[in-house]
Amino acid sequence: RELEHDMTQAIARGEFWLAYQPLVNSQSRAVTGYEALLRWDHPRLGAVPPDRFIPLAEETGAIISIGEWVLQEACRQAATWPDDLRIAVNVSAVQFWVPNLVDTVRNALSISGLDPHRLELEITESVVMRDNDSVVATLDELRELGVSIVMDDFGTGFSSLSNLKSYAFDKIKIDRSFIATIDRDTSSRAIMRAIVGLGHSMNLPVVAEGVETEEQLHLVALEGCVQVQGYLFGRPSVAPAFETRQVSAI
Ligand code: G
Ligand code: G
Ligand code: NA
Ligand code: MN
């Protein structure tokens, strides 16, 4: 299809850019980092929503080179930020099916000079759906690089409990569908509490995404979500500008 074809040239034409959404501490509201979210400005169609082109890119395999671009661009920009800010990058399950993901990440880190401990990779349950030795090995190698692995959209997959047990994650992010109604609906509040409890029982910090109201913030903070993300604190937008620090050029 046309979109499919255009996508193969979008990197070279500079049509992709990264929007950044803040992650904040639920108590202090201090920004702890940003999640990079891919945007495509199509020359004729305008902004193509990621929900539309990412699944397509996953089908065609274009996500491999697009994902590599995302990692390099996110690391490049984050390397110019203050050292205490982390960067979260979404990695598709398809990127785990080819053998060079670890090299791609290592390469993005070395080109940018970004401290690996500042990089978080967000993966979904689809990555770990099949108990696959090569996925386990890849996750281990990534963690050996010093990057952390975040289970994204947690609670929406099929095998949540067993996944948490078999894989070493550093953090889980509760899907925003569970947050959306917690200020109105006691049952979704109970589900949210159960998910957070599950994470904590495995010593994993839990992030709540999709926080849009003060009431939602209050409730997730009460349950012990240390980090939060959502429109209450900021929508995904152009790269944050920080005062440029002097870099000694020799
Ligand atoms: O950006 P938005 O909030 O509309 O994201 C829609 C979906 O696209 C989300 O599921 C998000 O995880 C996914 N997405 C956004 N950017 C990237 C990216 O760089 N890589 C991958 N694999 N998914 C992304
Ligand atoms: O799947 P992932 O969690 O990566 O998706 C992030 C998506 O969530 C992006 O499309 C982003 O725009 C969206 N998002 C982030 N914060 C909020 C929020 O507070 N409310 C809603 N409705 N969507 C949000
Ligand atoms: Na994400
Ligand atoms: Mn998510």
TrEMBL record:
Signal peptide region: none
Domain EAL, first and last residues per copy: 1-250
Top-level lineage group: Bacteria
Protein name: Diguanylate cyclase (GGDEF) domain-containing protein
Organism annotation: Ketogulonicigenium robustum
Upper classification of the organism: Bacteria, Pseudomonadati, Pseudomonadota, Alphaproteobacteria, Rhodobacterales
Full-length numbering of the shown residues: 534 to 783 of 786
